[in-house]
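Appendix B. One record, verbatim.
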Amino acid sequence: MTITPKDTKAASRTAPPDHDRAAPDGTEPPRTTAHRPKARLRSLDGLRLLAALMVAGYHYGGRGGEITEAWGSSPATQFPTAHTWLAYGCLGVQVFFVISGFVICMSGWGRTPLAFFASRASRLLPAYWAAVVLVTAVFALPMVAYEAVSPSDALLNLTLFQQPLGADRVLGVCWTLWAEVRFYALFALCVVLPGVNRRRVVLFCAGWTLAAVLAQAADEPFLDVTLMPQYAPYFIGGIGLYLLHRDRRDALAWGIVGVSWLLGQHYAVADLWHPDSPDAFSYRSSAVIILIVTAGFAAVAAVALGALNRIDWPWLTVAGALTYPFYLVHEHLGWVVVGWLHRGLGVPSWATFALTLAAMLGLAWLLHRFVERRFTPPLRKALAAGR
């Protein structure tokens, strides 16, 4: 999952009033009762960073796999009590998807298809390309124990199409970007291309919800890949929350959010719950899974409805800017840092955990400062001009 710094900036602007007048295409008149959004949603920046830290906690201490090699033993041994709670950190992805639905609906409102494409591509690609090159280069170093992907697969990773084509992934988290890209495509084709208005957004949410449920029932791979039934409720729920941001009395938007939450908690439990077993890394309670999904929806709802407007600390803007590059690099490069600190230098487990997070945040700042800020504006300008 991914919500980029520009996304938060777009979500920080005052939403335009709905000027869609009654017309032959069925657009409705302006909604005079719409809530006037706040000028800056810094609380959304903080929520994005919190979701990223949840995912990082999961990758460093809440699962097995390559991180076990980095620690020299299972994270369950390194963090005997905390690992059971860190295992819930993977639900940060679901929170990211809800935020993404909110932000993409806002950023697409009033934009042409070309401007929407330019905005999405210019925010995703510079940091992503830099992260792919950086991780590939680090994993190719003789002193790094992890195997790098083949040169062909590394080049294919630059397209964001490595997962559907079955290639090895340079970045473990890039599967969420593939979900994001499919969401962007659906929203652009169904909403942005014909022109964004409330009615089209509502119909899109209703249509996608029903189509995703049917795809799940049909068990057809093509429909599953296209409609993403296991992730759709989070994106759709975020869209519904943006409609509430525009008008908190919108009954249809409340219905969209409610149905999305009900479906989202179902998919989260179905994907993450398993019977308690000594062979499993950890046990996740279905009640806690539901609670975290509910908290994610509630947190974005609190932002949408203005309940968190007092959380307006300037440093949250910086935190939001670091979230996307941090998310990209924290997992695989984190393995290298954990191994160097803990096994190489003998740094205690919790100190290694904290220092690794700090190192990845520092690297994220460098990527934001020297990659995103330098290359995003000219790329957006070139794409928006159609060149």
